[in-house]
C-alpha cells in the first residue's frame, strides 16, 4: 500500500496534464487556469484509498479519481459565481478573470470531461460507478440549492442544516470512497460501511470548519476569524446559539445582525461562549467522527489496510486551519 504522501505525488504526476483541447482557447484556458490553482485534492485520493483498501490500485481507479476531481472543480467554478466570490486560493476566480458567461461554460465543459473519464472505466463495473456518480452529482446540486434557500429562510432547523451539509459536502466524500471500493472489488457490506464513514466524516469536517471560523487561531487559520458571523451565515454554531439563547441574548443577536457594529464578531462570540456553543460544537464534531470510525472499523479487511484512512480522518478533524 502507498502512504498518503506517495498517493498525493502519484496523483499529481498523472493529473497535472492538459485535459482539454487547445481551441477555442477562450473556453479551455479558463479551466487550465483554474486547475493549476491546485488544492488539497482529498476527494480523488479517497477514490484511490477506497480501491487500495481491498486490492492494488487499478487503472479504472485513476479514471474515477480524475472524474471526481474535475467534478469537484466544476462545482467550485459555479459556486464562486453564485457566491460572487472574487478570490479562490488567493487568486482571481474564473468569472472575475474571464467573465461570468465564459465561467459558466468552462464549468459545464469541466463536467463533460469528468464523464469522458468515467467512460474509460471497464464496462463490467462502469454501470454502478456511473450510477453512483450521477446520484451524487444531483445530490450536490440539491445541497447547493438548499444552501441558497436557507439564506432567505429566517429559522433553519439544525436537522435541516445537517441534511444540507450532507448533500453539499459529505456525499461526494462518501461516493469517492465507495467508487474506489467498487473498482477494487469490495463486497456490498464494505462498500456501504465506507460510504457511511465518508458521510459522517464530511459532517464532522464541516462542524470543525464552522468552529475554526469562529474560535480558531487567526495565525494558524490563515485568515481573520469571524467571517461567517460578519456575513450572518447560518452555521452549526449560529443555529445552536439561536436555539439555546435566552430571549435577551436572542434579541441582542438580532440587533447585531441588523446593525453590524464594529465589534459585532466579539459580541456574538461572547454570547456563543456564554451559551456553551464552543464546547457543544466540539462534542458534535466528536459524535460524527465517532460514527465515522465505527463504520471504518466495520469494514471487513485487515486493520493494517484501514490505518491510512484512520490517519487521514484524524488529520482532517484535528486540523487547526
Protein model, in words:
This protein is an all-alpha fold. The protein has 16 helices and 2 strands. It has a two-stranded antiparallel ribbon with strand order 1-2. α4 runs parallel beside α7. The longest helix has 30 residues, at 123-152. It is globular, with a radius of gyration of 21 Å. The two termini are 28 Å apart. The model has no long low-confidence stretch (mean pLDDT 94).
Mind sketching the topology for me?
Elements: H1 4-15, H2 25-35, H3 42-52, H4 59-83, E1 87-88, E2 91-92, H5 94-98, H6 100-118, H7 123-152, H8 158-184, H9 188-215, H10 218-221, H11 227-230, H12 236-244, H13 247-259, H14 264-274, H15 277-298, H16 303-318
Number of helices: 16
Strand content: under 5%
User: Radius of gyration in whole Å, from Cα?
Assistant: 21 Å
For the largest beta-sheet, the strand count, sense and barrel status come to: 2 strands, antiparallel
Q: Taking all residues together, what is the mean pLDDT?
A: 94
Give the termini distance in whole angstroms.
Answer: 28 Å
Shape: globular
Helical residue percent?
over 70%
For the largest beta sheet, what order do the strands appear in spatially? 1-2
The total strand number stands at 2
- As residue ranges, the low-confidence spans are none
User: Topology as H/E string?
Assistant: HHHHEEHHHHHHHHHHHH
